[in-house]
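== Protein entry: sequence and backbone fold ==
=== Local backbone shapes as whole numbers ===
==== Amino acids and backbone structure tokens ====
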Amino acid sequence: MPPLPPIPRLGRRTLLLYGLGIAIILFSLGNIIWSTIHLNRIGSNSWSAANSKAQFISEGSFSNSLRHSAIEAVNIVKFVAYGGMFPENHDNENANAIIDDRIDSKSKDARQEESVNHTDESGSIIPFELSVNHLKLITHAPGKPPTPPLPPHASSSVPNEDFLPVVRPNEVTFRWRHRPRVGSPAADAARVKAYRIIARRFVGCDNCGSKGDGDGVLWDSDKVVLIDNEHDNDLPTSIRWPAETALDIGHMIEWRVTLWDMADQTSTSSWTKFAVGPEKEDDWKGEWIVHAIDMATFHFDRKGDACEKWYMRHPLPLFRGLLPYQSLQSFLHDDDPLVSALLVVSGLGSFRATFDGVPLSPSGPVDPPFTDYSQRVSYRGFDVTNFLVGDDNVGSHVVGITVGSGWWDHRPVTGMAKPELLANGPLTVIAQLYLTTASGKVHITMPTKGSTATWQVSRGHIKESDLFTGEMIDLSTLTEMEGWDTSSKWSIAETKLSPSQNHWSLPVSYITNITQRERREKLSVMANALDKSEMTTRTTRKGYLASPIGQLFPSEIPPILPMERIAPDEIHDLGSGRWLLDFGRAFSGMLHFDKGLPQPIIPHNNTYPRAHGFGDASEKQWSFITVVYGESLEMTTGDINRVLVAGMGLHDGGPRHNSEPEGAQDNAFCFPDDHDGILTQKDVYVYPSESITNDMFSRARQSHFTTHAFRFAEICCTSEPPTNVHALMYRTAMQEW
């Protein structure tokens, strides 16, 4: 019998790697066992990740499943142990997918942006992340949800980007980052030897102008040498647009940069773009417009307290403007076709814009960003060229603007921010459209004006909106008004005012008798910075008492966008049609129902679980679904801790649960109904009718003009949890370090 081969001795490095792998696996399994035991105490039935999570996750979503963490731990150990290669019998495609899912989102963004922002040349230094005034073009928000079903007559065109930087004509500064090309010699990539910037007028359509490098060029810096026999300069941190080259308001500009390395080889970025927006008050042909009934609630002679007037301004208004086909054609000629179209919009408190029924951006609940609106208000710019060129886009066009209360007209509840401290007025919008032709001529059309047939206003589907406490969405009105922002649903405005939904009337101009100086002096007196006897203005006691609106300026920071789309870690059945979703970490945002909500049910004995009641709807036998958000669970019941602001409820939200007696908040000024004495983060989807069709709640997707801080969310009341539900994490669209 031949002798057995000797047993190979394992090296110290291999033993350490296998030991580390075993430790990671044990730690992951321990976490799974602990979390399963802990979370199963919440309700009588626990929907574990293994059994039900597939219902909630669609392709491309990000999951925090601990089960996947354990799989990943095994794969990482194998990856390291095999010297950076998976063994031949391992499913490489699956392993790569697992590791790709775990790569930090900012690394993914950097790779995607890098592939977009540079061309494949031989230079050792690659430019990327091009920005103008610190703002980058954002083509697609990382957490953008699926596009909801559009109205039957909506445009088939889509926006080119989710955020378009807009600058003033005399404030344009270029910046970019650069990195060495992988595998390039270190000496070649050590420094940038020279650069060149080319900027040209943007042409947003085929067959209406050449996109050759030399055509439509507005500025060419030529090759700027930094290092040679006569120079030894570092690359500047920014490059300003030359003062002698004027920019026209309404133009969109494309630009790119070429870098030379120390071996005199080049790399050139791809084209990116920005728009030039209005700068001074005289540049705006449009004016702030408002629903006439809303404006009347701010008149000095109007009876009622602040809360009563706040309810008079609900449901929230929708605005729409018409661009007739004949009007569009009057600007265009065969020898001077349209090459770009820039829509500039702002709205107070918050707004979302559509063009021919298509959303122009998935921007978040605070757009425009929060400022002292009596001093400065930012606006957004949207490239709508795609909607106006081509044989498929012949006809009239409609701009739609949905608004939310935001910081401008929030609920005047006791303990929250006071209207007298923040600028306050009726919800209002301003907009105008710039059309640029091949000759470079710019036409301004569709300016918002009060009492003109171009713009209309109506009550819409948002019954209530509050930045913190949530939204109430009327699904009946949402269905009835489907397509309100398309030309097929355009109708002549009614002459009679009405607070009813789907009643289109002419808006009025925003009016106030409060001056900027009077408002500043009042705030100074309230802050004890000025004695009342030193005021130089008299308190206004007649006319309209809304706050003055400040100067308009282009957005100077990136917008708030959905930056991550997160699937729930665990889903638990709490009974009575109530479902608890645990996302594993806290963040700011809201739920998005990719396929809509399921049909609601009525709990046993018509008794709704705590925090999910809606007295008015129950009395009228309306169908509704509620979503309650919270960052933690209560120690005693396992329910969501609903305290939104410390002290604004039956207990303070702290670990000691310092309590107030039942009914302590009943007399709080303008406290929301059905919040059970605790100011709650709560969205309500209601169908105000006794009869309901099977697909009515499937139209619901998400709330818009509210933001919730949460890890947990409860949905009530449905027989089954909604499928393909995700959380959208909203934050400022800046790259994380």
User: Anything to note?
Assistant: Confidence is low (pLDDT under 50) at residues 38-116.
